[in-house]
């Protein structure tokens, strides 16, 4: 799917017919696209051992290194420009890349698959908003080796040590059991650095509990469902979804609407089942709703039964009138 065009893109073809060239030669067609590409390719080769692991040649291993290495200007790096090009609909733009892609993908195909695992990549800045609310990750980098750092949550005694890769200065902190839609302060302290870096972030929303005080009544000739907000909203409720006899009402109710009235008159002798869900929409645009079964309620009235809207006081008044008529008749008989 192309991010800019919003449509399905065609396959990347043509590179497989290219010959397998040394890295420097494979990058020559990119000289007008990527500034100093030959300089970066030479640097990747110099940093690559003569006999790489997994049966790769030096040029194949260097092709992977060239794709992953950091550049002074990330917007002009090979991997940024290649990714942007892959997102465009015009596959002709990929032709200058074919020789490099042949070398790069040949190298990737030789690397054996590993079991599922978590891959950590240290970056500068706070990217906590990209993670679920109960699983926040803080990335650390640029710490003098050996690093000894920990993260403190909300100025409490909850100190979580950072884990660093062997022989590197980059690591991560994995903080669990955070509450949804809650503001947190994270202090990053390193023994080798005097200053403390503080990040403030709010966790994402989560699935709310069910609406409360569900009522289903006959209002005139139409059924009306009423409710109150959930006890645990887990965020600012985005919408309410009403389900009538298994069919969701469209569009959803606004978060300020706490009632729904059916658009057709009720017909006696028919059972209607209605429920309502409270929903939040998280930063990944996922709609997280409460369980509709928790609020499910049914309404049924026999064809011969009296209206449920007759109030108790009205019934008492009728009895009083009947008693007065009987008493008046007795008085008239006596007279």
UniProtKB/TrEMBL annotation:
It comes from the Eukaryota. CDD domains: FN3 (cd00063). InterPro entries: FN3_dom, FN3_sf, Ig-like_fold. This is Fibronectin type-III domain-containing protein. It comes from Rotaria sordida.
């Amino acid at each position: 799917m192309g991010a800019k065009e919003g449509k399905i893109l065609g396959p990347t073809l043509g590179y497989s017919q290219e010959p397998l060239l040394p890295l420097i030669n494979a990058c020559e067609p990119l000289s007008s696209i990527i500034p100093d590409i030959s300089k970066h390719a030479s640097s990747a080769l110099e940093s690559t051992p003569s006999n790489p692991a997994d049966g790769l040649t030096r040029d194949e291993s260097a092709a992977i290194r060239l794709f992953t290495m950091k550049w002074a200007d990330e917007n002009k790096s090979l991997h940024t420009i290649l990714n942007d090009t892959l997102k465009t609909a015009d596959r002709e733009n990929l032709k200058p890349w074919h020789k490099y892609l042949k070398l790069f993908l040949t190298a990737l195909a030789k690397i054996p698959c590993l079991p599922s695992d978590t891959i950590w990549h240290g970056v500068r800045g706070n990217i906590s908003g990209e993670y679920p609310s109960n699983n926040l990750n803080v990335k650390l980098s640029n710490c003098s080796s050996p690093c000894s750092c920990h993260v403190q949550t909300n100025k409490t005694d909850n100190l979580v040590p950072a884990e660093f890769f062997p022989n590197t200065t980059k690591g991560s902190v994995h903080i669990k059991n955070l509450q949804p839609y809650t503001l947190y302060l994270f202090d990053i302290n390193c023994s080798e650095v005097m200053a403390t870096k503080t990040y403030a972030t709010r966790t994402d929303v989560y699935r709310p509990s069910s609406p409360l005080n569900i009522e289903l009544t006959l209002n005139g000739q139409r059924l009306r469902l009423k409710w109150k907000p959930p006890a645990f909203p887990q965020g600012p409720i985005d919408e309410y979804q009403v389900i009538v006899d298994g069919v969701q009402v469209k569009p959803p109710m606004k978060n300020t609407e706490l009632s729904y009235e059916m658009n057709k008159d009720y017909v006696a002798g028919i059972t209607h089942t209605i429920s309502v869900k409270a929903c939040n929409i998280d930063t990944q645009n996922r709609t997280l709703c409460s369980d509709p079964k928790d609020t499910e309620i049914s309404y049924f009235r026999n064809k011969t039964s009296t209206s449920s809207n007759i109030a108790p006081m009205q019934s008492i008044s009728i009895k009083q009138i009947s008693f007065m008529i009987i008493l008046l008749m007795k008085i008239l008989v006596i007279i």
